[in-house]
Design a protein that fits this description.
The complex is a heterodimer of chains A (454) and B (309). Chain A is of the alpha+beta class and 454 residues long. Helices cover 46% and strands 12% of the residues of chain A. Chain A is built from 19 helices and ten strands. In chain A, helix 10 crosses helix 11 and helix 11 packs across helix 18. Chain B has two domains: 49 residues; 236 residues, MetI-like (MetI-like fold, Orthogonal Bundle). Helices cover 74% and strands 1% of the residues of chain B. Chain B is built from 14 helices and two strands; from the N terminus they run H-H-E-E-H-H-H-H-H-H-H-H-H-H-H-H. Chain B has a two-stranded antiparallel sheet. The longest helix of chain B has 32 residues. The N and C termini of chain B lie far apart (59 Å). Classes of the chains: A alpha+beta (454), B mainly alpha (309). Chains A and B meet through helix 1, helix 4, helix 12 and helix 18 of A and helix 2, helix 6, helix 8 and helix 13 of B.
């Protein structure tokens, strides 16, 4: 008797447990608001972009019916996340922050919207002519813009004026690599734990290969000839790679095969290296983070050369609209606001002039407050960017664009492999020539597999 | 006749009813079961499907079915073979070193002394530091010849500053990971030592056995299942060691610290070759299973008949 009486109660309990667990599952799926447009933006976690996220209320004041959801990711996670989204056409993002390397590749595949036709020509208020020409070229494909440049940068030389004075040396505004090697040999002071120069050595196409490729370019070398045959073992490229490895091994920072820009920034600001060749964007952080001995003694010079002048690299972070976005007009309003003259002024006033996004617009360098805050390096940054030519990066003709990289989809793989071998040479596991030979046969294999070499 | 028929009918009815009640009883658990299948087994099947495709995210050609080509390519890929070798060397050294170091620490802590609680807490702390934070600290705070403590020590004793990470890349990864996991080994082994009955040790002492003899003949056999369990757990986690490699060396120089999981990561997020990465992932999984299943069988003895010791 009691059994039959209990049964409905147990059944009821079971059904309600089931209902509860289903309800909990459904909690995650809530309908969104339909009235206003919400843009999902994928951003790199760097100080300039964090400032942008903080100043977004000014955008809401101008466009009250657009809401913005920022998804901030570390730079090396941003790339795969965004690539997966656009390549599989999942349409999760309305605005994506991508590097100069991706813009032409993704434009060619039709993953990102052509901004020139739809927006740039119509939106005269945005002043496209004010953009620095090399940076504009960098975020364009076949003459049309596919991203708005958020900031741009080149590479130059940081050095310690006090150490140069003490050694009786003088850094010219345009040094050559031979001079730099000579300075490094004289300033290298192992007893006092001071290295002559700091250069990147850690594997990664965006790490050690960036400075190395600018050295290859200025030595007259190239990655590929016009028929896509790898040219690393050609005399000039080989000379450049051997020079880089030798300089780093003899007068560079110790244990260089583990160091990227992060470690070099630390070594330079703590007074453990006399020179550092790296990105212009680090000028602000170097002065901010330098210890008392280094602060006030930081000098800047153009990227060292050998044969080809104007050997600094060229990089930009751009804001693009994936073609899968359903709110492209609203997305343009956001990316044009973020890259406008007004925004740069606003960021300078609200967050400090040292941290405004540099290297995108000529007008930035004419703002008196900006000139005052960055007088030590603004001029050289502008000169370095203007001298770089991503469309003609080498002495001999090449079938590719891009200064410190080769704009083909396979370059990440090629670059990562080559930089691994380079690190092997820097650490002394193998000779530079062995590293070149191993890399070149792998590059050839990749290029044949991808159909460049028939 | 009819009574027999009736009873057999009743039996099947009862069987059917018990089957139904069985599922009715399990009903509240079903959503959880389905969820577990969705998040563990489905991705496995999808990865298997991807591994049979030529699918490069950045390539212009559409994904296509290539059967087992990715698997054949793996065998002829020198870096992949190097990654298997590195994984074997690094994992086995870390497991052995962790058990040895953890065991020594546990022996030291398995005695009464003042400040024992503090010493024990300090000894297990490395395990609770996030791997990335630990790796960053070791990179600049310990190994770096300019800023690190090792550089300073070797300089003071007159052998100069050693380029640890460039010259001994695998060793630096092994030391760092051992430092973290020997704390874990300590936890389990100390628990094992504390479960050793003190009267046995006392009896042995009365019989005139030396401390070394007690340790070798009584303590070690008692600890055997604990050591096996530690070895298994450490091996399972260290096989997929990632943070130390990504922070210290990026897998270099010349792939000398690239293990299988780091190579799968490179294939997926540097080459963006999802087909190959999936195939390498499958191979890694099979290797890991080939290694852990026999170990699991050994260890599962612990849970039967109240252990074997």
């Amino acid at each position: 008797m009691s059994m039959t009486m209990w049964r409905p109660a147990i059944a009821g309990a079971r059904v309600s447990t089931l209902a509860l667990s289903i309800a909990l599952g459904l909690l995650a799926v809530r309908p969104g608001h339909a009235e206003e447009v919400t843009l999902t933006v994928a951003l790199a976690a760097n100080p300039q972009m964090e400032t942008a996220a903080k100043l977004i209320d000014n955008f809401y004041a101008k466009y009250p019916d657009i809401k913005v959801k920022f998804q901030t990711l570390p730079e090396n996670q941003l790339r795969p996340t965004v690539l997966k989204d656009v390549a599989t056409k999942s349409g999760q993002f309305d605005v994506v922050m991508i590097g100069a390397y991706e813009v032409p590749l993704w434009a060619e595949k039709g993953w990102i919207a052509n901004l020139s036709k739809e927006y740039v020509e119509k939106d005269t208020e945005w002043k496209a002519d004010d953009l620095l020409t090399p940076i504009r070229d960098l975020v364009s494909f076949k003459g049309d813009m596919f991203a708005t440049p958020f900031y741009g940068s080149s590479s130059f030389m940081f050095y310690r004026k006090d150490l140069f004075d003490k050694a009786g040396l003088k850094m010219p505004e345009q040094p050559t690599w031979d001079q730099v090697a000579e300075f490094a040999a004289k300033l290298d002071d192992k007893a006092n734990n001071l290295s002559g120069i700091c250069l990147r050595g850690i594997p990664g196409w965006g790490q050690s290969l960036a400075p190395l490729t600018t050295v290859i370019n200025t030595f007259g070398g190239r990655w590929f000839d016009e028929k896509w045959e790898p040219q690393l073992s050609s005399e000039k490229s080989r000379g450049a790679i051997n020079f880089y490895v030798k300089l780093l091994k003899e007068h560079g920072q110790p244990d260089a095969a583990k160091d990227g820009w992060q470690e070099c920034l630390q070594l330079f600001t703590q007074g453990k290296t006399a020179m550092w060749y790296d990105d212009t964007v680090f000028a602000g952080p170097v002065i901010d983070q330098a210890n008392d001995q280094v602060k006030g003694n930081v000098g800047f010079a153009l990227a060292p050369i050998k044969v080809k002048p104007g050997s600094g690299w060229l990089w930009a972070w751009g804001l693009s609209i994936p073609t899968t976005s359903k709110h492209q007009d609203a997305a343009w309003k956001l990316i044009s606001w973020l890259t406008s003259e007004d925004y740069i002024k606003l960021a300078g006033e609200k967050a400090g002039w040292g941290t405004v996004p540099p290297g995108s617009r000529q007008s930035t360098y004419k703002l008196p407050e900006y000139e005052k805050a960055t007088k030590d390096y603004a001029d050289l940054t502008l000169k370095s960017i203007s001298a770089a030519n991503p469309l003609k990066p080498t002495v001999d003709p090449v079938p590719y664009t891009g200064v410190q990289y080769v704009t083909i989809p396979e370059f990440e793989q090629i670059g990562d492999f080559t930089s691994q071998q380079l690190a092997g040479a820097i650490s002394g596991q193998m000779s530079a020539d062995d590293a070149i030979a191993t890399s070149e046969s792998k590059i050839k294999e990749i290029m044949e597999d991808a159909g460049y070499i028939k | 006749m009819s009574s027999i028929l009736l009873s057999s009918n009743a039996r099947t009815a009862r069987a059917r009813r018990s089957f139904a009640t069985g599922w009715w009883n399990r009903l509240p658990l079903l959503p959880a079961l389905i969820f577990v299948i969705l998040v563990t087994q489905l991705p496995f099947v999808i990865t298997l499907y991807y591994s049979l495709q030529r699918w490069n995210l950045v390539s212009t050609t559409a994904p296509r079915f290539v059967w087992f080509r990715n698997f054949f390519n793996a065998v002829s890929d020198a870096v992949f073979l190097k990654a298997i070798f590195n994984t074997a060397v690094m994992t086995s050294s870390i497991v052995i070193a962790s058990v040895v170091v953890g065991g020594l620490l546990a022996t030291g802590l398995n005695r009464e002394f003042r400040g024992r609680t503090i010493a024990r807490t300090l000894a297990i702390t490395p395990f609770f530091i996030m791997p990335v934070a630990a790796a960053l600290f070791w990179k600049t705070g310990i190994y770096d010849p300019t800023f690190g403590i090792l550089g300073w020590i070797t300089d003071e004793i007159g052998i100069g500053r050693i380029n640890w990470i460039s010259q001994y890349p695998r060793l630096t990864i092994i030391i760092l990971t051992t430092w973290q996991w020997s704390a874990f080994a300590l936890l389990i082994l100390l628990a094992g030592m504390q479960s050793f009955p003190p009267e046995v040790a006392e009896a042995a002492e009365v019989d005139g056995a030396s401390r070394l003899y007690v340790f070798r003949r009584l303590m070690l056999p008692h600890l055997r299942p604990f050591i096996e369990l530690t070895g298994l757990l450490v091996a399972m986690y260290v096989l997929e060691n990632f943070a130390a490699i990504a922070i210290l060396t990026n897998g270099g120089p010349a792939y000398s610290t690239t293990n299988l999981s780091y190579y799968v990561y490179l294939e997926a997020f540097s080459s963006f070759d999802l087909g190959r990465a999936s195939a390498f992932g499958m191979i890694s999984l099979w290797l890991a299973m080939a290694l852990t299943i026999p170990m699991l069988r050994v260890v599962s003895g612990i849970f039967k008949e109240g252990g074997r010791a």
